[in-house]
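ESCALATION

Customer reports they have been waiting on this structure for their group meeting. Please prioritize. Original submission:
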Amino acid sequence: MPNLQFNISKLSPLFEYLEKQRQVEKNRKIFELSITFGLISFFLFFAVRPTLLTISALIGDVRSKKVLSTTVKAKIDQIIIAQDNFASIQEKYFLVEEAFPSHQNYVGAMNLVDSATSQNNITLDKINFTQSKKNYFSTQISTSSSFMSTINLIDNLSHARRLLDISQITFSQDKENQSQGKISFVLPINIFFENNSDEKK
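Update from on-call: job pushed to the front of the queue and completed.
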């Protein structure tokens, strides 16, 4: 028994040393884990976090651009439709301009009257135009012709593309015209146009 106690007392420093070494190893592992965790946290905060923020910003930009692209595409489609409508209207605009011109267009009115009278073999010495304060000007056909030519003239003018108004017609006949089979007539005509001067005022 004394020998056993002696051996234990001799081994006691060894046990203490081993216990200290075990504690040191444990502390070292805890320190290593702490350092590792700290490095991971540092890496996540300073490296991964900015990357995640950048990715998030890029995703937001992509979504915004998709919305913007959809909006722009819709506006482009509307512009294309408007251009098509304008092209379609523009093709017919000259018809509207010819019927109801944006200005007086005396030359067009003179050609209209001259063409209608020539087609019916009616001779005009002159054509005068009188400007009204409104959106029309007036002229008057005063000559002599056969009754049928006069009726055909009125028919041609009433079917003309230019917007005009024949409010009345006056017939008369003298002996000279009667011997020639003609009648005298007076045909006042109001010829319309778009008057933009009132809008500008």
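Sent to customer with the following note: The first strand starts at residue 130 and ends at 131.
Escalation resolved.
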